[in-house]
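Final report, results section. Input specification for complex C-07:
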Amino acid sequence: MNQSGKILDYDNNRLMMPNKIIEMGLLPETIFKILYQAPFGGPLYIEFGKENSRIALRKEEAEYLIVEQIR
Amino acid sequence: MKMAKNHTQILLVGNPNVGKSTIFNALCNKKQKTGNYAGVTVASHSGTYVYKEREIEIIDLPGSYSIYPDSEDEAIFSKFLIQEQNQYSGAIYILDAMNLKRGLLLFQQIQDLGTPLLLVVNQIDEAEKRGIHIDFELLSQQLNTKIIQTNAKEKIGLDELREAVHQNCFTKSESISFEIPLEQKEVVHRISSQANEKNPYKVWTLLSSEKYLGKLESVHEQLTDHDRKCIVPKRLQTQETIRRYQEIDKILPKVITKKPQFKELLTEKADKLLVHPFWGYVFFAVILLFIFQMVFFMAEYPMHWIDAGFAWLAENVKNILPEGPLGSLIGDGIIPGIGGIVIFAPQIGILLYFLYLLEDSGYMARVVFLMDRWLKVFGLNGKSIVPLISGVACAIPAIMSTRNIENVKERLITILVTPFMTCAARLPVYTIIIALVIPAKKFMGIDYRAIALLGMYLLGFVTALVSALILKKTIKQKTKSFLIMELPPYKKPLFGYDFKLMLGKVWEFINGAGRVILAVSIILWFLSYLGPKQNPDQFVATGVHLHDSYLAKMGKAIEPVVAPLGYDWKMGVSIISSFAAREVFVGTMATLYSLDDDVEEGPIVEKMRNDVKPNGEKVFTLATGLSVLVYYAFAMQCVSTIAVVYRETRSIKWTTLQLVGMTGLAYLAAFLVYQFFK
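Structure output:
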């Protein structure tokens, strides 16, 4: 929890990726922070971008993103 | 006031959660209606207002993030926007001042499609509080549109908006802000000239959409094999979104100055508790308990008044009208029948009102976040929690609220299992049967009857989950399920708007069910008033004894079918007539018992309690009662729900399967329960 990261790119499997991920603004170079996760491997609650947008997404969707951890 | 004859239609569009409904509500002070437009069912409403003697109709479309639809809701939005382009004269685009970036994506797409647009930037006060300052003059130049600043909640900027609409300040952009990528440029231009479509972006959107947005067939026929290789709709969409965001990122730093480090304090603090892995669930349970408490206890008073009011009305009507057929039709059939519906309006209203408030405050999105992991196990989506809870009021709005579930399979399962949730229409049946067969005793201070009622709610919920699990295993569907959802900042709900919304829904319920009951009571009354002729010179016998009526003959004919469940012919008739709607059961029972001269006068429950079979046994025993309860818990006894399921699934197969499956399960379960307890 409370880990920050930067989106570098999308997974190779990008044709399977829901376009909504990009529409929501999860673009390369975006900085994000994981705030919460629902128990037992539930969805992630993340805050990202200059607007501090908050969205929920499942782990499966998050795996389409190639990210770099920021300390 | 004089009104112009040809009124103007204006669309209201934007992302979800930008204050669209607030603006709609503040603009339209006149008649609101839900309407259907040429082939497209619009989920949202339309309303009108008059400004400077001109009537303006506002059509509120569902919110969307892009013109490429992911869900049914967004499909409604895109289809209307693109296919009905000559129906409306312009669109008001609402942008949230705190999230310009996400909003501008859709704005530019709509602008590029050639729709005349007027931009409204809403919640400027909230943005300013957060240290966000926007240079509107520059933004207006960059986007080539007029901008109105509003703070709709405080009704600021609305007059300017009305004036701008009046002046027709909608601008149509001549150029296209999105440059068609080189790779597809040739195809797009060739098709535009062949199809005589001047707007290359329109052709591009047709090529990029997987689900058909427009009349695509003619375009697709013209594609060569080589074209098809460079046109992968998904890839085109991704490309477009990324490029647009790159352009938007160039504009934004010029127009926005932002003080760093503003903290969304309320939301941050509240979410520490509300999405907590333990306390979050506790809080949700408390909220649910509170709502149900309100539904049952707060509704008690108005229900009492309604009951007394209708009894008084029936009594007076019977006194005024001459003794005879008409008086008994109205006094014994229609008025009690309609009263039986109206009495549930307070419960439905209270439940819906609380649900709207939760949705509006931003809390429902957190519930979706908390429940997704658990509902996934049953083949549902976190978003299914909203239909499941509203199904406790009425399955019809609940099934319509599944439209924002993107995955087809999850949406279908949600639609199929929602009618198992104990809706308000089951309550009259449960209440009367429980009062009949469950003793009014207490166990450790808790009323047996309360436990029985709670048990019925649990039974419905568990059955919904179990059937979802079975459907998950049986439906073969490969499209990937996902959950990507905005978690909006918390805000004070619009109490007045939600109240109006609730009143509208409750009225729809009363109106719809009222008509059915009216029709059913009239038919029943005729069938019970008339009977086979008793002497040769009659055509039919009138004013017969209930036992000699056509109704009784029919009821007795179907008795063999319902006898294994422990029912007599009166209950058989009530069940058949309540195929229209569950609550009709009680109305029919009331009509039948009030027509039966053999039964002593008194409250309906007493009449039912004292009724005996020809062999002297009581009609209502524990076994019969439980059998009726179980039957109504499972059976699909509601024509309106069947119609909505068909409309939403567009599948005769699934609608029939649901009807047969639920009613079959009901018959079997009622049979087993009766045989076990007999």
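The longest strand of chain A covers residues 4-10. Helices of chain A lie at 20-23, 59-62. This concludes the modelling results for the funded period.
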